[in-house]
Amino acid sequence: RESQVELREHIDSLATELCRINEDQKVALDLDPYVKKLLNARRRVVLVNNILQNAQERLRRLNHSVAKETVRRKALLEAAGGYPHGLTGK
């Protein structure tokens, strides 16, 4: 996610710099297509970042559910008189 944020910041910086260069040029260069490409790349980076954040949140919730279920099952085994033969409880 950090690299996605860095990439987005670099793209923003490049787009701003291209706009500034275009304004400073005496001969008008058409940099708009490049700025549009950068903005499109930025949009894709933001989309990937959102996907990664959602996946990370789902993994966090799944990990929490697994830990909760593990505690529940361990308590059931202990309440039933210990662990089955050959298991140590680790």
UniProtKB/TrEMBL annotation:
UniProt-listed GO biological process terms: endosome to lysosome transport; intracellular protein transport; lysosome localization; lysosome organization; regulation of synaptic vesicle exocytosis; synaptic vesicle exocytosis
Keyword Coiled coil: yes
Domain of life assignment: Eukaryota
Parts forming coiled coils: 38-72
Gene Ontology cellular-component annotations: BLOC-1 complex; BORC complex; synaptic vesicle
Gene Ontology MF annotations: SNARE binding
Keywords per UniProt: Coiled coil
InterPro entries assigned to the protein according to its UniProt record, in alphabetical order: Snapin, Snapin/Pallidin/Snn1
TM stretches of this protein: none
Family: Belongs to the SNAPIN family.
Matches recorded under PANTHER family: SNARE-ASSOCIATED PROTEIN SNAPIN (PTHR31305:SF2)
Protein name: Biogenesis of lysosome-related organelles complex 1 subunit 7
Protein species of origin: Todus mexicanus
